[in-house]
Every structure is written in C-alpha cells, then in structure tokens.
Amino acid sequence: MLCYVTDGAVLSAEPEARLRLLLPRISAAIRAGVDWIQLREKDLPAAVLAELAAHAVAAAREHAPGTSPAANAKVIVNDRLDVALAVGAAGVHLGGASMPVGRVKSWCRAGHAPAEFLVAASCHSLAEASAAERDGADYVFFGPVFATPYKLPFGSPQGIEKLAAVCRALRIPVFAIGGITLENAAECLRAGPAGLAAIRLFQDAQEMDSVVQALRAKR
Questions:
Q1: Three-state SS letters, the chain
Q2: Residues of the chain with pLDDT under 50
Q3: N or C: fewer beta carbons within 10 Å in the chain?
Q4: The model's pTM
C-alpha cells in the first residue's frame, strides 16, 4: 500500500492558496493509484481543512477503480477527529501530542463512528508501536526510517533493522515513513511493512503515474 502524506505548509502559508495547490496533487495521486491520502495539515483552520478533506473524499469516490467503497482510496485526517467524521473520511491519524489512541478508539467503538473508521498512530520506537497496538490502533506509521528534514524533531533515523523488528512484533499493519525514495524503497519493503508513506516522494513528483508504477514494481 502507498500513502501520500500531505504537507501544504511548504507550498504556501496562506490557507486558501494551500488548498488550491494541494488539491491537484491529491487528485493526481488518487488517479495514479495511491491507496491512501493522509491530510497532515495541522495548522489549517478547521473550515479550510474540512473543505480540503471533503474535496479529497469526493476525488477518491470519483476515481474509485471499482464500485465497492472498499476500492476507494482512503482519506485520513491528522488529529481532527471532528473533521474526519464530518466529511466521511476513512479515519484519523494521531501523533504524540494528539488525544490518546485508547481514548479515541473507545469513543469510536461506543457507536460514535462507523465500524470501519480507522484510528492510527505515529510511532518512533518498538515500545510506542506496541503500546499503540495494545490500545487498539488499526495501523501505525513507524519512522523516520531514513534521514528526512520533516522528521528531524524525532531524532536520528530508526533504520531498516528497527523497522523490521517492529514489523515482526506487531500484528497490525505497519507503514514505513521518513526519507522514502525510489532508490531505497525496495530495501525498505524487504523489512516487511504493509506499505510506504511519504511526503516529498509524492508531493514533489512531476510524473505521479511513473512514481507510483515504479514503487509498485519494487514489491
């Protein structure tokens, strides 16, 4: 599985401009066959984030390869559970400063969210990943696997061996994130993650179709 994680802040600090710049990239990624779109726009006002998420969900439905909703690209929203639910997104992704996974999962299980609604977490160690699984996370992001400016606050790269250890230890899907490129994707996949998540690899792509096809060929 492939996940495009957006970071519109590097495109524009102005919310409406960011919306205009991100939407074509999201649509291109969906048309190219990216499985998941994660909206990592933590600083956007709720109204603008909701508009972005609604457009992303509509694009996923429009370009679905089949008639089943399960065939649609999944749209995940960082942190904002309210926005994710309001626009019909597939789930919410939680970081270290977000609400605890267990609390969000319990609230969802109490009937406040669709049964298939996903709750996920970003993790930077085996202990964090194991705790997220124990608390009910449906999947985790683990990284940074390789060096990347986006993950500098989380310390040195975790590396392939730690990624492989997390993949072996967890029963839920693990996505590798952090410095993923076409050159190191195959090495990363050999460690056993369910998928790859990336910002620059997709957001900066000049030919989205070519990038996605090249990644699919790494399996």
A1: CEEEECCHHHCCCCHHHHHHHHHHHHHHHHHHCCCEEEECCCCCCHHHHHHHHHHHHHHHHHCCCCCCHHHCCEEEEECCHHHHHHCCCCEEEECCCCCCHHHHHHHHHHHHCCCCCEEEEEECCHHHHHHHHHCCCCEEEECCCCCCHHHHHHCCCCHHHHHHHHHHHCCCCEEEECCCCCCCHHHHHHCCCCEEEECHHHHCCCCHHHHHHHHHCCC
A2: 67-70
A3: C
A4: 0.93
Residue 14's identity, in one-letter code, is: E
Instruction: Please give the CATH superfamily to which domain 2-216 belongs.
Output: Aldolase class I (3.20.20.70)
Give the number of residues written for the chain: 219
Q: What is the pLDDT of residue 69?
A: 45
Render pLDDT for 2-61 as a digit per residue (tens, 0 to 9): 999 999 999 999 999 999 999 999 999 999 999 999 999 989 999 999 999 999 999 999
Q: What is the residue whose two structure tokens read 């590097």?
A: 10
Domain boundaries, given as residue ranges, for the chain: 2-216
Give the separation between CA 137 and CA 57, rounded to whole angstroms: 22
CA separation for the pair 23, 49 (Å, rounded): 12
Question: Torsion angle, CA of 92/180/214/20, rounded to 10 degrees?
Answer: 50
Which pLDDT belongs to residue 70? Answer: 44
Q: Which residues contact 146 (CB under 8 A, 6 or more apart)?
A: 157, 178, 179, 180, 181, 184, 188
- Which residues, 6+ apart, have CB-to-CB distance to 67 below 8 Å? none
